[in-house]
Design goal:
This protein is α/β, with parallel strands linked by helices and about 250 residues long. Helices cover about 35% and strands about 25% of the residues. The chain has one domain: P-loop containing nucleotide triphosphate hydrolases (Rossmann fold). The protein has a six-stranded mixed sheet, sandwiched between helices. Strands 2-1-4-5 form a four-stranded antiparallel sheet, with helices on one face. Strands 11-12 form a two-stranded antiparallel sheet. A hairpin with a 7-residue loop joins strand 1 and strand 2. The protein is globular. The protein starts with a strand and ends with a strand.
């Protein structure tokens, strides 16, 4: 099953294009990483995939529907780049955030036993069930990211989209976070990850898209590491340390 279909998409906020002639598909069960320099159009691409913008040219489909017309939003779990900042001001508990994922499924708008069970299982899956009653304002960045992934799992999301989720997260939590994503993917979750850490994308994902307005590479991480796509996409902004490419 094709989860994401992007066909010759171009988009610009003004006359200057942000994305040009982008085409790729993501099938169910894939774990895809998107890399590119700052201002390369990565977040804009996600917004097009989620139907928040319409492409100037081309076509975007999400789970078989035109992205702009896709109505079953609970099927997609989206963790935004700035979610850890936004939630610092939310006076609610972890359990309450995760229960939000059940609202589209709740009969007559009421949260029932099944919904609470789903939320509890989601918290257990991401390893923060012991934090259920803690206010989200009192969590670390990594714990907040796990909370929002749990909300997606509670809502039975089929696709997890993450926009630079490790920004502001300490190194130890980052490694644990990628372990969690790997486990979720092993269980069948389709994952689309925008990440600034190129080494982490090469190590953890199954497929890499390298973007800088246009698509410079689409393929396996090992082939990406051995290609010249980084040099072409990043120019002088790339340096290589030993055998790992980093920014």
């Amino acid at each position: 099953m094709t989860v994401i279909h992007v066909d010759n998409v171009s988009f610009g906020y003004t006359a200057a294009p942000v994305l040009e002639d982008i085409s790729f598909d993501v099938d169910a069960g894939e774990y895809v990483g998107i890399v590119g320099p700052n201002g390369s159009g990565k977040s804009t691409l996600l917004q097009l995939l989620l139907g928040l913008h319409a492409p100037d040219t081309g076509h975007v489909e999400l789970l078989g529907y035109p992205a702009r017309e896709f109505a079953e939003r609970e099927r997609v779990g989206y963790v935004a780049q700035d979610v850890t900042e936004d939630t610092k001001r939310m006076p609610i508990t972890v359990a309450e955030v995760v229960l939000m994922g059940r609202f589209p499924h709740a009969g007559f708008g009421r949260i029932g036993v099944e919904d609470r069970t789903k939320a509890r299982e989601a918290l257990q899956t991401v390893g923060i069930d012991h934090l259920a009653n803690r206010r989200i304002t009192n969590l670390s960045g990594g714990q907040r990211q796990r909370t929002y992934i749990a909300r997606a799992l509670a809502g039975d999301a089929e696709l997890l989209v993450l926009d630079e989720p490790t920004v502001g997260v300490d190194a130890e939590s980052v490694e644990s976070f990628f372990d969690l994503l790997g486990d979720l993917n092993d269980d069948g979750m389709t994952i689309l990850l925008v990440e600034h850490d190129i080494g982490a994308v090469i190590e953890h994902t199954d497929r890499v898209l390298c973007l800088n307005r246009e698509l410079y590479f689409d393929g396996p991480p090992v082939e990406f590491a051995e290609s010249d796509a980084l040099d072409r996409a990043y120019g002088t902004n790339v340096r290589r340390d030993d055998e790992v490419t980093v920014v």
